[in-house]
Amino acid sequence: MTKLPHMDAQEFLREIGQKINDYLATVFTPDNEPQSLFNAMRYSLLAPGKRLRPALCLAVARTLEVAEEQAMPVAASLELVHAYSLIHDDLPAMDNDDLRRGQPTNHKVFGEATALLAGDGLLTHAFSLLSHRLPFLSSEQQLELVWSLANAAGPHGMVGGQQADLSAETQSPNLATLQFIHTHKTAALIEAAVVMGAIVGQASIEQKELLASYGRHLGLAFQIVDDLLDVTATTQELGKSSGADERQHKMTYPVVVGIAETRRLAENELTQALAALAKTDLHTSLLVGLAELSVRRIH
Amino acid sequence: MTKLPHMDAQEFLREIGQKINDYLATVFTPDNEPQSLFNAMRYSLLAPGKRLRPALCLAVARTLEVAEEQAMPVAASLELVHAYSLIHDDLPAMDNDDLRRGQPTNHKVFGEATALLAGDGLLTHAFSLLSHRLPFLSSEQQLELVWSLANAAGPHGMVGGQQADLSAETQSPNLATLQFIHTHKTAALIEAAVVMGAIVGQASIEQKELLASYGRHLGLAFQIVDDLLDVTATTQELGKSSGADERQHKMTYPVVVGIAETRRLAENELTQALAALAKTDLHTSLLVGLAELSVRRIH
Questions:
Q1: How many other C-beta atoms can be found within 10 angstroms of the C-beta atom of residue A3?
Q2: Do A143 and B151 touch (CB under 8 A)?
Q3: How far is A171 from chain B (nearest CA, A)?
Q4: B243 near A CB under 8 A
Q5: Which residues of A touch B32 (CB under 8 A)?
Q6: pTM of this structure
Q7: How far apart are CA B189 and CA B154, in angstroms?
Q8: In degrees to the nearest 10, what's the CA dihedral of A249, A252, A253, A256?
Q9: CA–CA separation, A75 and A77 (whole Å)
Q10: Could you report the predicted ipTM of this complex, rounded to two decimals?
Q11: DSSP B265
């Protein structure tokens, strides 16, 4: 295997973020009708964001020596699902948030009904992206991609985690429930992002399992850090309302185990993510860097 | 081709409806967590209904001599998508309905947040059903099924129709908008049901096109009749609130062209659906019967 040119994770995120944004801008065309729906979908899809999920997918594909053009529609499908989940999460019936990614939330701009449909549309269209005939990928690969995304995003994954998160607002704090929430609500889709990169890169079964483990632990670390940032960062730094978890009586790591132990748990997940990578036969410096970046946000 | 034993459409719907219900009851198992989410999904999925979309899919598969067990997960995916669309449609931000299929609507029983997530979960899980490795079907067939469903249900199909339906509440009545709404909101998924049966049955390209035309015209006829029934039937007959369209200022056929012309348009769509069938080389008596039944509801 030829060694990939070394690329710093931050530099990678900057470069790939721009390419992801360029691609996302082409997913819907300006003449799509009804315009009110497509405007609302574009508004949330193209709002500034880290693009963590597509970037991870593309980083894994790159690690497996697949050119990013080949993996781009696959990576984009993850951002569509993520954008949908944010729109629905922010609705008055859910978290009732006014601010997201530094902008008014979708329903504040387009109204609740259109926001609901924009979320539905983004979610469904993610599966159109994956099932449209893609060059470079076999039907078997595309079908596995659909399965990975549907399973991670659905009731056995993200949607289940969101429901558990809701129910937890009226429960007394406990670590088992918290772990269920974070594993499902956030880690499932981040794991899927990594696995989907592995599918595109035709990883072996063993590589895929180790990469899945990396993605799962990275996803948990990421959500634990998100919990911390909600306590320690400002609204401007977050681009969404700071302190929202506490106001909504969310069950979070700082609430359940305190801030110091939360930091330790994040570091522990990071260690496990890196341990999984170390067991692969791949050049993983980019993936190591991305994991470290995701956790270093707290310092 | 061996001739299928003749089966009356009404008899078929009764028999297949029971089998569809039996299968739908197995899609989620009682130990799935979080129970609140799965209970809400099951509540709407298993509520009494005509099962028109899965029945059409299975009728086409039967016409192409495919045993129903082989097509059942595919048929079920259509009912999951239909159930999701009803849950979201009934939400306070949308039509704000209290009654559906003769029962309180999902959000009336489980609350708005859980109803929203139950819809999201059903929609996403439909794609899990289609992408899980299915015996009897090739990866190519499964991928084409995913594409057909996603395209028909997404922003270029059903979700787009729902948005147009919303926007039309504040527009002056016109036939072009009304046709856009009905083609997208209802006919797209009914056409997909027929096409998905054709994919399972490995129909030729020509057969598939004719069956798609049958499905599209049948879907339009069905929605036109639904518009009529909202005016002419009672709440008890409908299992949902009668007269709701008028109260919500919906743009419907009776509003735009009057009741007599609406009946004529329904008959016209039926005629076109049957004409498409007549051009196939298939034994279409069951499909003819189903189309006639869908329109005969008005008399």
A1: 7
A2: no
A3: 14
A4: no
A5: 155-156
A6: 0.96
A7: 10
A8: 40
A9: 5
A10: 0.96
A11: H
CA distance B70 to chain A (A): 18
State the fold for domain B9-296.
Farnesyl Diphosphate Synthase (1.10.600)
A140 interfacial to chain B (CB closer than 8 Å): yes
The first and second tokens of residue A91, run together, are: 């609705």
The residue with tokens 């299928």 is B4
Residue listed under structure tokens 């054709």: B198
A28 touches chain B (CB under 8 A): yes
Residue B115 contacts residue B80 (beta carbons within 8 Å):
no
In whole angstroms, what is the distance from residue B44 CA to residue B27 CA?
13
Out of A114, A119, A147, closest to residue B132 by CB: A147
Instruction: Name the strand (E) or helix (H) holding A92.
Output: none
Neighbour count for residue B227 (Cβ, 10 Å): 24
Query: Which residue did the predictor score with more confidence, B120 or A1?
Result: B120
Q: Which residues of B touch A147 (CB under 8 A)?
A: 128, 131-132
Provide the shortest C-alpha distance from residue B206 to chain A (in Å): 20
Q: Distance between CA A146 and CA B15 in Å, rounded?
A: 32
pLDDT digit string (tens) for A157-171? 999 999 999 999 888
Instruction: Note the pLDDT tens digit of each residue in A131-167.
Output: 999 999 999 999 999 999 999 999 999 999 999 999 9
Best to test chain B binding among A27, A41, A44, A120 (most B CBs inside 10 Å):
A120
Mutate: best of B116, B122, B196, partner A, most A CBs <10 A: B116
Q: How many CB atoms lie within 10 A of CB B30?
A: 8
Distance, in Å, from the CA atom of B221 to the CA atom of B223, rounded to the nearest integer, reads 6
Q: Name the residue among A38, A121, A159 with its Cβ closest to that of B120.
A: A159
Torsion of CA A287, A10, A64, A73, to 10 degrees: 120
SS3 readout for B67-94:
CHHHHHHHHHHHHHHHHHHHHHHHCCCC
Q: Do A114 and B37 touch (CB under 8 A)?
A: no
The CB density around residue A33, as the number of other CB atoms within 10 Å, is 14
- Partner residue opposite A159 with nearest CB, options B88, B94, B124: B124
B182 CB within 8 Å of a chain A CB: no
Tokens of A295: 């956790």
If we measure between CA atoms, which residue out of A136, A120, B33 comes closest to residue A128? A120
Instruction: Please write the tens of the pLDDT for every residue from A221-235.
Output: 999 999 999 888 888
CB A228 within 8 Å of CB A266: yes
Query: Residue B146 and residue A147: Cβ atoms within 8 Å?
Result: no
